[in-house]
Each structure stands twice: as C-alpha cells, then as structure tokens.
Amino acid sequence: MNVWESPEFDAHEQVCFFTDRATELRAIVAIHSTALGAAAGGTRFKPYGSDSEALDDALRLSRAMSYKSALAGLPLGGGKAVIIGDPAKLKSRELLHAYGRYIDRIGHTFATGEDVGMSVADMDTIREVTPYVGGTSIGAGDPSIHTATGIVHGLRAVLKHRFDRDDFRGVKLAIQGLGAVGWRVAERLKAAGAELVVADICEEVVQRACRELGAVAVPVDQIHKANVDIYSPCAMGGVITARNAMQIKARAVAGAANNQLADAEAGVALMQLGILFAPDYVINAGGIISGLEAALRMPGRKAVTLKPLAEQLAGIHDRLCEIFARSAEERRPPEAIAEQMARELIGR
Ligand code: NAI
Ligand code: PHE
C-alpha cells in the first residue's frame, strides 16, 4: 500500500493513519484540500476487503468532499475518514473515544460527521472528547434528512432537463438502498406521486417499502436494469461501470451515493448512451450544508454569513441546471463540467 502512488492520491495535503491497540481501532483520515477552509467530511465505518481498498476509498471520498463543499459555496475544504472493521463487532464507546482523541489531535484543520456505519449517537460520543465533530444531537442532528431534501431538489432539475416536466406524478424511479437517505427520498417521491422500484440487501426494509410505499421489489443485482425513468443509487459507490451502463434503461441517474461512477469511462459511457448523470457531489451536498456548524466552530475562523438552510438546499436544483446546460452546450459529461468548476474554485 503506497499512499503517494495511489491513483486516487491527487496531491492530498495530509493523510493520517491512526491505531489504538486496546480497542482495535484502525482509522485513516484523508485531507484533500484546505484551500477554501478547514476540511470537513464524514467518518465511514466499514469492513474493507483490504487496507489499500480502505485507503483508496478515503482518498476518493475526501476529494469528493472538496468538490462538494466548493460547489455548494461553503467556506470549507474537503476531507474524509474511514474506520476499518465491522461496526457491529468493533464499535464501542472506548473505540469512539480513542478515535475522537485522534480527531482532536489533528485539530483545527479537520472536522468530521456521520457517514455509512455511523450515527448521531456516535457523533455525540465522539463529541465528548473533541469539538471537531458535527451532526450531533445538540448540533445539526441527522444530516440524512437534509441530504434527502437536497436529492429531491436535484431530482427536480433532472426532471426539468431530461423529461421537460415539473412534477413527479407517474414518474418511475428505481431506488438502490433504502437507508437513512434512500428511505426518506422514497417517502417523499411516493408522496409526490412517483412509482417506486426498490432494492436493498436488508429484506425487512424492502418489505416495508412494498407495504408502506407501494414499491415493487427487485433483486439487488437487477436494480440498475429496472425499466424506469430515473435510477437513483442511494447505497454504495462504484455502482456504474462502462460495461453495466449499457444495461441501464433509465434516461437519468441521480442519487445520494458518493462516487457512483467507478471511473471516468463510466461517465463517458452514460453520456454516449444519452443517460443524464447528476454528479453525486453536487446533488448530495445537503448533509454537509447542514453539518457546517462544527467546521465553523474551529478556532481562528472568520465569521461567515450563510443563507438560510432551506435556501441553500434549494440551490442544489439551480447548480445542477447550470451544470446540465453547460454539459449540453460543451458536449462534455456533467461530472467533467462539475469537476472543472470545483477545481477552479479550489485552485487546482
Ligand atoms: P445507510 O447506511 O443508512 O444506508 C445504506 C443502505 O444501502 C442500507 O439500507 C443498506 O442495507 C443498503 N445497501 C448496502 N449495500 C447495498 C447493495 N449492494 N444493494 C442495495 N442496497 C444496499 O447510508 P446513508 O446515510 O443512507 O447513505 C447512503 C449513501 O449516500 C452513501 O454512499 C453515503 O456516503 C451517501 N451520502 C450520505 C449522506 C448522509 O447525509 N447520510 C450525505 C451524502 C452522501
Ligand atoms: N456523509 C456526508 C457526506 O458524504 C458528510 C457529512 C457528515 C456532512 C455529517 C455533515 C455532517 O456528504
């Protein structure tokens, strides 16, 4: 495992490796850029297949956070953390404290929050040993509520641009992953008149979606092929490849999962197939927008005045419309336009 030579390295400013033998904590904190402010990004707790997989995930997610905050107009840099292991077996109060002490040691250049495998209660535990954490119950709370709101704003931009319509009545969506964000998105779309096709590795939540939201269930390896208008990945990253893009019947892909495209070729394939892609770090910015407060609490930070939360979340719609319009005009994939815009903002 060589950090400098990882294809995901992209001149990260700092990468920290932490171990605590007593609690078996092994964590990586990746700080991509602090050009626009202190780096902020969630902590993912996951059993990775290998340490280099964990490192690459941290690096990719961290860069995505730089892009996400820059494009959302936030005075923040980008970073991300991963804790390696199965949270169901390894997570303990002691481990979270050990982790929090390491976050505290990094100090004013990084603040964290929830990601997959972490909860508001976990953030409260980490908060006992460091101020550099958001999404706590006395702070912004569960970011997924706001992420879901942002996703729905973004889906409206997709509706307008790809389907030339303003409402979800009768629109068919395939939602992959009914977790904290996916479930909320599903509920709101159902209420707005959409028809849902769903998949999740958790059979219980799928049954609940069928019962309560009238959703149609499909196997997890079939959801991207569903005969729908929009495919919405809301589980893990890397779900779209140049190869499986050809199987997608939807005319647009827009969802919450970070790093949905396995690589740049996957995005080019989507465009060639006429499938509109909403860059994930644009459409899923609601969580970081809501969780900003921890990062702004950093010592030495200038006071900033932000627009009200609802207005910032609604801004996701306009940003996507701008990206889609430029993409059509310049005949380049939306994520290439978004990446260029983000890199200009952070001076890369
Ligand atoms: P979560 O852990 O609550 O939900 C993920 C869901 O996906 C679970 O129900 C899980 O069973 C399911 N799942 C896992 N593997 C699957 C597979 N192969 N096929 C189908 N379903 C599968 O996570 P959350 O918070 O809803 O996040 C979802 C995605 O959105 C993640 O990629 C996360 O990084 C991203 N995201 C989340 C934000 C938030 O505010 N929670 C903010 C921005 C991005
Ligand atoms: N998990 C969020 C993301 O990927 C990061 C985040 C966590 C933001 C907690 C705010 C609070 O965007």
Could you characterize the architecture of this molecule?
There is one protein chain. This protein has 348 residues and is α/β, with parallel strands linked by helices. 43% of the residues lie in helices and 16% in strands. It is built from 13 helices and eleven strands. The strands form two sheets. The protein has a six-stranded parallel beta sheet, sandwiched between helices. The chain has a five-stranded mixed beta sheet with strand order 1-2-4-3-5, sandwiched between helices. β10, α8 (264-272) and β11 (276-277) form a beta-alpha-beta unit. The longest helix has 22 residues, at 309-330. The protein starts with 13 loop residues before the first strand and ends with a helix. The model has no long low-confidence stretch (mean pLDDT 95). Bound molecules: 1,4-dihydronicotinamide adenine dinucleotide (NAI) and phenylalanine. Phenylalanine is lined by residues 41-42, 68, 113-115, 134-135, 143, 258, 284, 287-288, 291. 1,4-dihydronicotinamide adenine dinucleotide is lined by residues 114-116, 143-144, 147, 176-182, 199-202, 205, 220, 234-237, 256-258, 284, 287.
Short structural description:
43% of the residues lie in helices and 16% in strands. The protein has 348 residues and is of the alpha/beta class. Strand 10, helix 8 and strand 11 form a beta-alpha-beta unit.
